[in-house]
Amino acid sequence: MSEPIASLSTVTKSFGDFVAVDDLSLDVRPGEVLGLVGPNGAGKTTTVRMLCGLLPPTSGTVSIAGHSVTDEPMAARRALGYVPDGAPMYPNLSPRQHLMLVGRLHGLTDAEAKAEGERLMGHLDLGDRIDDPVGTFSRGMRQKTALACAILPRPTLLVLDEPLSGLDAPSASMLKAVLRGWADRGGAVLYTSHLLDVVERVCDRVAVLAKSKLVTVGALSDLRAKSGSDGTLEEVFRALTATEDPEAKAKALLG
Ligand SMILES: Nc1ncnc2c1ncn2[C@@H]1O[C@H](COP(=O)(O)OP(=O)(O)OP(=O)(O)O)[C@@H](O)[C@H]1O
């Protein structure tokens, strides 16, 4: 099997006495969209932040494209495009300024970043807003700008944390096709989401985290076999994470 594009190896992250990610080993393989799912507080964002070099692991190692995220952060970052949840950006800067910054960080010339940035923003229906401050943008517009910044340098690995939130239906459909196309062209995608129907349709493999630990990782058929459920990813997820029936919970909540 070919070398993984990204690896977390026996990674643990503690905040004081609390272990947020416990002894996690996970590979992202070339050509795949890997889904990362789990209940609220399971440790998904903490895992993604460690993978992207934004949070140092307490123990274990993380690498992207063969480069240690802690020892060779610049080389690892050059292989990575990251769209964080909520896409925090510099409010006073325009998409063009963000794209130029990203371009410089990744060794593109300003002319290359300008041309490619304009092309991407045009396809994202934001060509006419490329010089406006992102602080004036809607959530979905910021999300699209963050996506353009992430894919501008054509990274080997795309990491997206809940990327569909805020996108309108056509934009969400386009993004799903982009993820699939990215992987089909030899890149890799780590995709974190609570939208299990989308994860089921887009991802080749799914990693299930619960209570800081990896419950299992595999294709939906593997997860079905492991859970003993023959149903949708949502049903498999409930079985694997021992989540209560939502209807019963809603009844209890309403009293
Ligand atoms: N900086 C921090 N300090 C203390 N605890 C933290 C910190 N960051 C995360 N945690 C804790 O780690 C656990 C995992 O959080 P994380 O954000 O990774 O979960 P998640 O799976 O992304 O959840 P959600 O689906 O709700 O976004 C939570 O209990 C959270 O309170």
Automatic annotation (TrEMBL):
Keywords recorded for this protein, A-Z: ATP-binding, Nucleotide-binding, Transport
PROSITE patterns reported in the protein's UniProt record: ABC_TRANSPORTER_2
InterPro entries listed in its UniProt record: AAA+_ATPase (IPR003593), ABC_transporter-like_ATP-bd (IPR003439), P-loop_NTPase (IPR027417)
Keyword Nucleus belongs to the record: no
Pfam family, one: ABC_tran
Limits of the ABC transporter domain: 6-236
Listed GO MF terms: ATP binding; ATP hydrolysis activity
Family: Belongs to the ABC transporter superfamily.
Name of the featured protein: Putative ABC transporter ATP-binding protein YbhF
Organism of origin: Saltatorellus ferox
Name of the gene: ybhF_2
